[in-house]
User: Fold Glycine N-acyltransferase-like protein from Leptosia nina.
Amino acid sequence: MLGVDTRFFGSRLEAELVQIMESLVKIESSNWSLLQDIFRENWPRYVVPYMLLDTHIRYPELTKLFQLKVYCPYGNFSNGIVAIKNYETSQDLIIYPLNNTSAMEECLRTTKLINWDKPIEIQSTTEEVLQMIMRLCSKLKIKISTKEKVFTQYLDTDTKIFTEVRLPVDTYVGQLVPKHLGLVNSAWPYKYSWSQKFFKCLMNNGLTYALYSMDHEPLAWITYEGVLTHLHCVPEHRNKGYAEFITKHAINCVLDSVKHIVAYNVETNVKSQKLFSKLGFKNIGHAYFTLVEPK
Assistant:
């Protein structure tokens, strides 16, 4: 046996039967905080999975939209997590092994919960996980078709809010609203069939921050989903400090409740990297957004 955690089963026999049937054991949302405690032990290395769980604990509507489920290899917390997002026609994965990477690799090879016969995006893929997927390619008959490198930037818990955030002339701040879904979606280079539903869910949960003109048109915006993301400034209004302003505003709002802030910046987006560095973010490593497809 590989250390099934029997706290979540009625008996050892039940736990053993679960292990025989499926190597990835579902962890109910009521126990996600226990997983967070483990991720806190090596900080900030595991800030990304910590914030993933934190966001879905706080905003169950996002969990419902993504149909997010969290699993541990053999039900053992110390093996890490596999979070599966089931969309209308596809799956996304977030994989974070902890101590026993061999257990994670074996579970990915044998699980029936992941459909490797269709394209899958593995989000926030660390180098460790990328190497694991490369080893599994021949066994699972998959290939890595694309991988985009992003830098993981982190604002630590001692950060003070920005006290001198001056609203640009003839502007105001507010949430993004549904009538601007088309604009926001079109500005996102990675949009797909259901991304408008995603942005609407962020809007409904107060997770968008926008700078508006006095004509009520959005000039710049950013969203929060456990990480700060989707920063965008309308092209004709760039180089006016709008992106920096709305980012500072969002940081102040998030720090007021969450305390930990993570941002991703694509490797090629040097301007955005410099902005986040200017605002106090520290580079704590890199990851990839990796697309795998059947061979």
In short: The mean pLDDT is 90. The chain has two domains: 6-151+290-294, 171-259. The longest strand covers residues 142-155.
